[in-house]
Amino acid sequence: MKPKSLCPKCGELFSRKWNMREHCRTQHHYDPDPNPRPSPIRQGKNKELINSSVNSTGLSMASAPVVKFLKMMSNSVRFQQTGIGNSTNAPLANSMGSIENALDYLLENFVVVGKKEFNGLSGYFCKKCVTFQYRYITNLWQDRTAKDEHLLHTVHTSPDVNRLVNQYELQIQAGAALIELTNSLFPGEKIFTLCPPVPFANGPVIKLDSLSVDKWAEAAIMKTGQVIEDDSYLNGFLMRAKGTYAQIIISSGPFKGTYFIAVQKSR
């Protein structure tokens, strides 16, 4: 029988050492083994994997794709599990410092899905618990938003005082994260797309008195199908929509009506 790993803090048993370390990082805020030594079996497998990668692609451990992968994994930990600015970010990010750790974490916690499976992104910064969450969206009209998911599964308690003090700064970081995630999902040139309206569609709704109120709204409606050349229009839309799609309702003027706008990658 495979020996079980014991949490040095609370004594809980785990079938895998990685699970024990993950438990310590999330529950006790430290990593009991930040630089683990691979077992001979695992080391052999890693060596074989690395050698085959070098032989077939010419990649080395210090190559740009490997560095990008490790950065992606640390970002996933920071945004998805601990919330932006959380004090546990550093030990979590530091523990991702090897290919073995990154692959273990990926296989344990994620299902790899191609970017083309998603049609949008939804983000939400909660001012009550001072955290940021996001969701990848497949159906723009029916999927729950990040706000829906947060309110459905979160019981709000008093947040850490330090996070309340830094709320504005964390909110700015959340906005930057949303822009970064959008550029990752839709790399390269992007366009605003006018989607078919659907009654009772789920998702964010933006109400404006007229189209001339905000330049980003004018660009989103008047320049659909055109490459977005001014990042301020794209970023303005992302910040107001809290994601890459929204219903924009114009209550007066020549453009009065409802427009379902989504950001997409230019073909």
Q: What would you say this structure looks like, in words?
A:
The protein is of the alpha+beta class. The protein has helices spanning 17-28, 40-57, 64-82, 89-94, 99-109, 146-153, 161-165, 167-185, 215-222, 231-241, and strands spanning 5-6, 13-14, 120-126, 131-137, 190-195, 205-208, 245-250, 257-265. The strands form three sheets. It has a four-stranded mixed β-sheet, with helices on one face. The chain has a two-stranded antiparallel ribbon with strand order 1-2. The longest helix has 19 residues, at 64-82. It is elongated, with a radius of gyration of 22 Å.
Please give the share of residues in helix.
40-55%
Strand order of the largest sheet: 5-8-7-6
Question: C-alpha Rg, in Å?
Answer: 22 Å
Identify low-pLDDT runs. Answer: 38-61, 76-93
Give the key terms.
single chain; 267 residues; alpha+beta; 4-stranded mixed β-sheet; two-stranded antiparallel ribbon; 10 helices; elongated
Quick rundown:
With 267 residues, this protein is α+β, with helices and mostly antiparallel strands.
Note the topology:
Blueprint: E1 5-6, E2 13-14, H1 17-28, H2 40-57, H3 64-82, H4 89-94, H5 99-109, E3 120-126, E4 131-137, H6 146-153, H7 161-165, H8 167-185, E5 190-195, E6 205-208, H9 215-222, H10 231-241, E7 245-250, E8 257-265
Parallel strand pairs: 6-7
Antiparallel strand pairs: 1-2, 3-4, 5-8, 7-8
